[in-house]
């Protein structure tokens, strides 16, 4: 049976480096895995009124339901995110919040997770990854402990193209995806 992996890109910009990195790692998953980007650009801002049973005049947006169902049906999730102002981008935090409700049916609960962060500077998105790990820690998500992936100076990864040009970076990412696949294999939610 195919294991579906949801890849969430923490940038809305079409040509973002996070999206390019995600596109490069999609085919790295082993046979029997199908990884695809789950778009978060059209998710309305999270508002608990949508999930509050006492608020009857604000139905749950269809985008929330579709996103939650996609995440719940996933065998694992991979976040690929830049760093914005020393933390995760607002669109990514919004997606995390949407998947965290309703309390009785949290989409993230127990879902194996991997994180790749990047920045145009030398820190590789360190702060964004740590903040994302903190936000996800509440959901008891099995993760790859080591290595952590912080890709610095992300424009240099591509040298103006779409493919990562450094063979050692490609190898490092492949080893990370292999480890994530092992975590997913060993932590089925079903």
From TrEMBL:
GO terms for molecular function: FMN binding; oxidoreductase activity. Pfam families: FMN_red. Residues 5-154 form the NADPH-dependent FMN reductase-like domain. GO terms for cellular component: cytosol. InterPro entries: Flavoprotein-like_sf, FMN_Rdtase-like_dom, NAD(P)H-dep_reductase. This is Chromate reductase. The lineage of its organism: Bacteria, Bacillati, Actinomycetota, Actinomycetes, Micrococcales.
């Amino acid at each position: 049976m195919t294991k579906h992996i949801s890849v969430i890109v923490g940038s809305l910009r079409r040509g973002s480096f996070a999206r390019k990195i995600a596109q490069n790692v999609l085919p790295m998953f082993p046979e029997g895995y199908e990884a695809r980007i789950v778009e978060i650009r059209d998710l309305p801002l999270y508002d608990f009124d949508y999930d509050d049973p006492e608020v009857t005049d604000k139905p749950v947006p269809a985008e929330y339901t579709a996103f939650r169902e996609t995440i719940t049906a996933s065998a694992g999730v991979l976040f690929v995110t830049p760093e914005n102002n020393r933390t995760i981008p607002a669109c990514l935090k919004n997606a995390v919040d949407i998947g965290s409700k309703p309390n009785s049916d949290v989409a993230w609960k127990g879902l194996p997770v991997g994180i790749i962060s990047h920045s145009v500077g030398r820190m590789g998105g360190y702060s964004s990854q740590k903040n994302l790990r903190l936000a996800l820690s509440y959901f008891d998500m099995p993760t790859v402990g080591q290595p952590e992936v912080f890709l610095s100076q992300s424009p240099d990864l591509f040298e103006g193209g779409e493919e990562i040009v450094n063979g050692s970076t490609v190898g490092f990412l492949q080893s990370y995806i292999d480890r994530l696949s092992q975590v997913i294999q060993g932590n089925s939610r079903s």
